[in-house]
Request: fold
Amino acid sequence: MLVEFTVMPVGTGESLGDAVSEIMKIIDESGLPYRVNPMGTVVEGNWEDVMALIRKCHDHVASKAPRIITGIKIDDRPGKPMDRIVEKVKTLERRLGRELKK
Reply:
């Protein structure tokens, strides 16, 4: 399962850099495969592990902000092998005949 998510503190000022840095430490320590993009993070794993990670990130931000907005987008394709976080991009690159910007 691939999940793209964002956790945004509200009411803590304009910059989100400190909160994002703290969340990235939590994600990195989870051991789940992930990719960062400018608007969120994609993680790969089973339902329980991914949702536990998102909850941990949400709770961390909740301890520091009066309001939190968490957005989650799920691509669940049972029966497909893990490593879709890499393979989906490789498939696009093969179809295009070139590497994509990363």
